[in-house]
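User: For my dataset I need records formatted as: sequence, then structure tokens, nothing else. Please produce one.
Assistant:
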Amino acid sequence: MFTAKTICNGILRAIGILALAALFIYFVWQVQTVIYYLISALILTLIGNPIQLFFKRKLKFSHTLATIATIIIFVLLIFGLIMMFVPLVLSQSENLSVLSTSQIETNVQQLLAKINNFLMNHGVDAENTINVSKITSSLDFNYIPVFLNSVLGTLSSFGMGLASTLFIAFFFLKDKIMFIIGIKRILPDNHEEKILNSLNKINDLLSRYFIGLLLQLFIVFVLYWIVLLIFGIENGFVIAFLCAVLNIIPYIGPLIGSVLAAVLTMISNLGLDFQSEILPKTIYVMLGFAAVQFIDNNFSQPIIFSKSTNSHPLEIFLVILIGGFLFGVLGMIIAVPVYTILKVIGKEFLPDNKIIQALTKNI
């Protein structure tokens, strides 16, 4: 029977729980940058595990030396990627130092005017063409220097984040055995074996997944670069890299990358005739990118992902689709790793469930 005291205690307990939950959410929000560092370091650790094992087993390095060698490889790769952008930055530094927003506006107007001329030459009525003055008047080109300053600020914070991530990843790799021992101490005895087995399988599958993802991005990058080289696009190496990185976002990323490549192609050929030079070259680049995406979507991506996560290609497609509908772009990016973790946990804790058995027969 409920009394006034019981109801009052229940209300106070509920208020206390809500207050603690709100405090926890507020704390997580305040330290979200640190959480990003931890997640990034964990991903680096998963990628670095096979490299560390190679140094230990094949080259007979000690555990600490193998960890240091793994981190050095990461540093060299990141340094190489950064140096890749140096020629582009140096070639544009003079232009940025004397940045003229009026010149940018003039270039945009010229490009839109060329598009209008092309449309009118092919039977499109003047009232259905692009309103150049309306578009350029609605754009605030003076925002560009502000945007560039914000980019520089982001790059400076990126340096600090990169150093923090590498530092955390070093200790994740070096002291992972100590972490496992610590986890054992706090796990309930009746579930300890299942939880540890789950962690080992998750570690193995996610390591293979992230390495497979890097391999897939590398294949796309090389194919993009070949397309841009064929059509003589300036700074093709950097453009191919940026478009390949966008492939991390399933389905949407390649579309953004294709648009980016098309825009950069048009800008790099701005002084040429639109109909005979700019438009054909842009179309060829987009067709080349479409061919790369066909190869990636139908060959490299399904094979690499299905092998690395032991999941059927259709299974992966549906998981990414559901993740996108539920949580947007972020959901599409984390869909496969989260699904892999849930499959492993399901197999360990619900091994007799028929649905779990069907989904995890290859794990």
